[in-house]
Amino acid sequence: MGVPATGHKDARTGLPPAALVVLNPSGQRTRAAIEAVPFMIGRQPDNNLVLRDNRASRTHARIIAENGQYVLEDLDSRHGTWVNGERVARHVLRNSDRIDLGVPESYQLTFTLEAGEINRILDQISSTSHSAGMGDNNLAKLRSLVEVARALQNSLSTQEVLTAVVDAALAVTGCERGFLLLRKGDSLEVSVARDLEGQPLDAGDLRVPTNVIQRALNSRRELLSMSFNPGSAETLEGIDRSVAALELRSAVCVPLILVQSGSMEETRIASYAQQTVGLLYLDSRLSPADLSAGNREVLQTLAIEASTILQNARLMEDQRVKLQMESELKVAREIQRGLAPVSLPSEGWFRAAGSSWASNEVGGDYFDVRQVSADVWAAVVADVSGKGVSSALLASLLQGAFLMASGDFAEIEPTMSHLNRFLLERARGEKYATVFYCMVNSAGLLSYANAGHCAPFLVSSDGRLRKLHTSGMPVGMLEEAQFQVVQMQLETGDKLVIYSDGLTEAENAAGEFFDTERLRNCLRDNASMGAAELHKVLLSTLDAFVEGGVIRDDITALVVEYI
After folding, report:
1. How many whole angstroms separate alpha carbon 116 and alpha carbon 128?
2. H helices of 340-411, where?
3. DSSP category for residue 200
4. Residue 120: φ, ψ to 5°
5. For strand 18-23 and strand 108-113, is the pairing parallel, antiparallel, or unpaired?
6. In this structure, what are the phi and psi dihedrals at residue 179, rounded to the nearest 5 degrees?
7. Can you tell me the distance from the alpha carbon of 181 to that of 399, in angstroms, rounded to the nearest whole number?
8. Pairing mode, strands 457-459 and 495-499
9. HSE-CB for 287 with a 13 A CA cutoff
10. Whose CB among 120, 190, 299, 498 lies 3.0–4.6 Å from 381's, allowing a Cys bridge?
11. Helix, strand, coil % (nearest 5) of the chain?
C-alpha cells in the first residue's frame, strides 16, 4: 500500500511541484519554485529566474509543460543550454538533472521534484509487479533509494530533508503514520508527523507510544519491529497503554545515529556509545508493516542516508547563514571605508598620510584628519575596545561625534569631554576607546591630548625621535575623566606618527611581535622622508615582517607632517 501514483499536483502547472536549486557564481544556493509555465530563464529582469551574468542570453531558456512532464527548451542562447554535460535544444527533465549555461564559473541549476513527487517515484518503483522475481524487486527498491537520496541532496532546508525521509519510509513499509523525532537535550521532540498520503498529521493524531520508543533506544538495535494484538493483556500491561488506546497492529523504530565513515568497508551506523540524533517511528492500525528482507534493508539504508544528509543539511544551513552574514559584513565594511577620509592634505604647510586595516570584516579602529579653520588642522586616531561588529559600530559613531565636536569646539579638552560623554551614554560603560587627538596651527604649535592611547612618536628630519608619553583615562570609562592638553612647538620637517596597538602587536610566523623597538628603528632609518613616503615604508616594513604570521587586531597608522 502506498501513495497514489498520481501524486500531488500544482493547480497552476498541472504537474507535480518542482523547483530549481540555483547555485550562483559566488557559491550561494537558493531555491526557485516553478510555480507557473512557461518558466523563463535569462538575463532579462522580467524572467522568472533572472541570471545576473552578462554572458547569459536575455531569454536563455524556458521550462514548459508537455504530456505531463517538465521540458527544458533552449531559446537560441549564445552559449547554449547544457544538461548533465551535454548541449540540448529540448530535454525532458528528470529529478536531479544539472543545467549549465555553457560558460565557466556561472550559474548551475539543479532540477528537483518536491517530496510528494519523490514518494510517487518511490511508490511506483517499489510496487513493481509482484510477479517479478525477488531480486528484481529488491533492485527496484534500491533504485528508489537512490532517487530519494539524490533528491535529499538537493534539499535546501533541514525540514525538507526530514519530510522526505518520513514520506519515503511510509512508502516503503506501507505504514499509516510516520514520525521523525529529533533529540533536544535529553528528550525527543516531534519534528515531522505525516500520513501515508503525504499529508501532515492533525494535532489530535500526534500521540506516540513512548514506552515503545524507549524500548527501541534501549535495545541497541539498528531497527526494532513489533507486532501487537490490541486486545491482549500483554499489550495493556507489558508494553504501553497508549498502544491499546491507539489500536496499533505494528510499530517500527529506526534510530538515527551519527554516521561514522572510514574506508568503504568501515562505513556503518555508529554504536550507541555515540550520539543518537533522532528516531524514525512508523506504525499501523490496519496491518503489520511490510518488513520483508528487501524492505528492511532499504529502510536501514534510508536511515543511514537520512542521518548523513541531516547532518549535511544542517551544515549547509549554517553555511548559508554564514554567507549571509559575510555578505552583510562586506556591505558594512564598504560603508565603514566610505566614512574614512577620502583625501588627505598633500600640499601646503600641513600634510598627512594614513590607513586603517581591519583584522575582521569590520574594524574598531578609525582615524580622521580635518581642517578646523584656515590656520588649524585636527587629527585623531581611536581604538574601540573589543573586536567585531559592536566595536566597529561604536567606532563609526565615535567618528561622527568627533566630526560634530571638533566643528563646535575649537579647543581639545571640550572635544574629548564630548567624546567621553557620548560613549558613556551609548555603551553604558561596557565599551571604551583609546583616543589620541591633536591640533596643529600654521605657526607649528602642536596641541594634543592622549586618552589611554599608544604614545605617538615625534620624528625630526635629522633622525631624532621623541615619544610623547603623556596619557590619561580612555573615553567612555568614567564620567568625571579629565583630559590634559599638552602643547609643544614643531620644527619644519617634524612628523608625528600616531598608531594603534595592532601595529606593534602584529606577529610573524616565529611568534615574534613587531613591537615598539622595530617601529622606532623603522622611523629612525627613514626620518628624512615626507609623510606619504614614511607611511608607505612603515607599511611595507610591517608586511615584510608579518609574512606568514598572524594579525589579531586592527592596524591603524597616521603620519602628519609640519612643513
Report:
1. 19
2. 389-408
3. B
4. -60, -45
5. antiparallel
6. -130, 145
7. 51
8. antiparallel
9. 6
10. 498
11. 35, 30, 40
Other beta carbons within 10 angstroms of residue 344's beta carbon come to: 22
Contact predicate 40/49, CB 8 Å: yes
Joined together, the cell numbers standing for residue 268 give: 556503518
> CA-to-CA distance for 396 and 340, rounded, in angstroms?
9
Cβ atoms of 216 and 279 closer than 8 Å = yes
CA distance 558 to 556: 7
Whole-number Å distance between alpha carbons of 298 and 292: 10
Burial label, 194 (beta-carbon count in 10 A; 0-12, 13-18, 19+):
buried
Distances (CA, A) of 550 to 131, 510, 512, 541: 69, 10, 10, 15
Report the candidate in 96, 99, 250, 255 with the shortest Cα–Cα distance to residue 176. Answer: 250
Query: In this structure, are strands 49-50 and 39-42 parallel, antiparallel, or unpaired?
Result: parallel
Q: Which of 371, 368, 326 is nearest to 349 (CA)?
A: 371
d(CA 355, CA 340): 9
- Written as tens digits, the pLDDT of the chain (563 aa) is 333 333 445 545 568 889 998 988 877 778 899 999 999 999 999 999 999 988 999 999 999 999 989 999 999 999 999 999 999 999 999 988 999 999 988 999 999 876 544 555 455 544 543 344 444 555 555 555 555 655 555 555 667 777 877 888 888 888 999 998 887 877 888 889 999 888 999 887 888 887 778 777 777 667 788 877 655 545 445 555 666 777 888 889 888 876 554 433 333 333 443 467 788 899 998 877 777 666 777 777 777 766 776 676 666 667 777 777 777 677 766 766 766 787 899 999 999 999 988 876 666 888 999 898 889 999 999 998 877 777 777 787 887 777 776 665 468 998 899 889 988 888 877 889 999 999 999 999 999 999 999 999 999 989 999 999 877 899 999 988 999 999 999 999 999 999 999 999 999 988 899 999 999 999 999 999 999 999 999 999 999 998 867 778 889 999 999 99
